[in-house]
Amino acid sequence: MIDTLQDHAGDLTLRADVCVIGSGAGGAVVAAELAEAGRSVVVLEQGHYWTAVDFTQREEEMLPRLFEESGMRQTVDGAFTILQGRNVGGSTVHNLCYCFRAPDPILRMWREEHGLDELTAEALEPSFARVEKNLHVVPIREDEVNRVNQVVRAGAQKLGYSGFVTKHNRKGCVQAGYCILGCSYDAKQSMLVTYVPRADRAGARIYANARVDRIEAEGGRARRVLARIVGPDGEARGHIEVKAKVVVLSAGAVASPDILLRSGLAGSSGQLGANLHLHPSVMAAGIMDDAFEPYRGIPQSYYVDEFIDLERDPHSGYVLMPISGFPVLTSSLLPGFGRDHYELMRHFDRMVGLLVLLHDESAGRVESGDVLAKPRIEYGLTEKDRRQLAEGLVHCAEVLFAGGARKVMIPTLPEATILAPGDDLSVITRRGVREGHMPIASTHPQSTCRMNGDPSRGVVNAYGECFDVPGLFVADMSVFPTSLGAPPQITTAALADRTAHHILGRWKELGG
Ligand SMILES: Cc1cc2nc3c(=O)[nH]c(=O)nc-3n(C[C@H](O)[C@H](O)[C@H](O)COP(=O)(O)OP(=O)(O)OC[C@H]3O[C@@H](n4cnc5c(N)ncnc54)[C@H](O)[C@@H]3O)c2cc1C
Ligand code: SF4
Fold first, then answer.
1. N or C end: fewer C-beta atoms under 10 angstroms in the chain?
2. CB 20 within 8 A of CB 26
3. Is pTM beyond 0.85 here?
4. Ligand 2 centroid vs 54 CA: distance in angstroms?
5. What spacing in Å lies between the alpha carbon of 92 and ligand 1's midpoint?
6. Is residue 25 located within the same domain as residue 147?
7. How many domains does the chain have?
8. DSSP letter at 475?
9. What does the pLDDT look like over 457-469, one tens digit per residue?
């Protein structure tokens, strides 16, 4: 049952074996695995239940529907924009389907530096295999590599840079290119069309428009989840109380620590909300000679990994990822006003975007704000990370020129940096990357309820269970001990699968 609570008036009291908060890459997996194993499951999801028929492919309609704060969630200083989903299926509904497992050197570092001895590739293999099968992860075919990705590949190969065509989770993709606005063809194998329907078929009760305020403990165990029914205007229309034996928090790396902080739970180590990593990204755009609708086709298929060597250094590095924009997002990223802005936008259908995505050591913090859905997010770059981002932009420019770009534009403020072939690219490093001087985005906030082998250094153990509150689990991207250094959806889902199977294995103790 998926209930949007649209016509519901008044309050609801429910009982379940397990209450799952959030229905994205973490929550949907936990809900399906536990419901299929016969547990009674209630899922509370703050966003609405939008499906393929609602995905209009129009930015002005889809950004407010599908994204936290209409796509304008920012750090307190306004320097970093953080994109996160707010709908049944979470951020998987509008992600770009790159599929990677957690890199081995990262798992090794988590074992050696964070005491997570159990997190070996072998131990995680069954979870990765299940998730990849259920999400239909396959290699991207050559005929699915669009022009934007071809330009980046040609440039990288000319320069001898390492890169490859990745795997993705799409089935029957018509290459429309609207992934970020939701797939109207149900080709994207997001949680919305995979694990959420499985949970539903197995009897889970999934409530959309149900925003969790707090979790209450009794006798040291999480026992009650309190939520509000929220209307389209964000106003509360009624209250929900769920009494459950086990609570799984999967609200993402911003909301999960916010809910725990509001509940006064899991904070004894002082690590709750801390260690926020963003995988921050900056971009350059190559301007090609011809107009070619860059937004058509699979947006990301090629991946340049020349500048990240996790075997040598698991703590730093960056990757280059092609990107194309739609008009509203692109215009919001371009500097200038009036005619200057128009001059840049004129090249919209000739632009090949290339992102630098950083494996960040910089760390921020999430704290509860005055309003539930608007936590305070603080984050600042270290000097080393600023240098890496600037160096990455130099490589973006090199790659774009080598791929045939006639100009390269970097959206520095107040004026764009515009370069022609043969220009001295050191101007990029001289200007540098500084907060507030160019748009910096994040689609991968993580690590705010981090796992650790030592209760004084983390919030949850290797299975996502809170040290302070037995029976309260976190299963989302907030459990990563450090920045993952790779696209995170498959690792998030695999760790959630592992948490679900751990809960089943301990059910007598937890559910009794
Ligand atoms: C634009 C974009 C592109 C991306 N591209 C890729 C990619 O190509 N490859 C990749 O691996 N990863 C990608 N990602 C990241 C990937 O989608 C995330 O790693 C993954 O979805 C995180 O899962 P999660 O469970 O932590 O959070 P989410 O999937 O965000 O789910 C959290 C859910 O909790 C709900 N929630 C929040 N607060 C509350 C509350 N108070 N009460 C009830 N519910 C609440 C939210 O509405 C949301 O549905 C992308 C992300 C974005 C935004
Ligand atoms: S490119 Fe494929 S997955 Fe993306 S919106 Fe189009 S059909 Fe859907």
1. C
2. no
3. yes
4. 15
5. 6
6. no
7. 2
8. -
9. 999 999 999 999 9
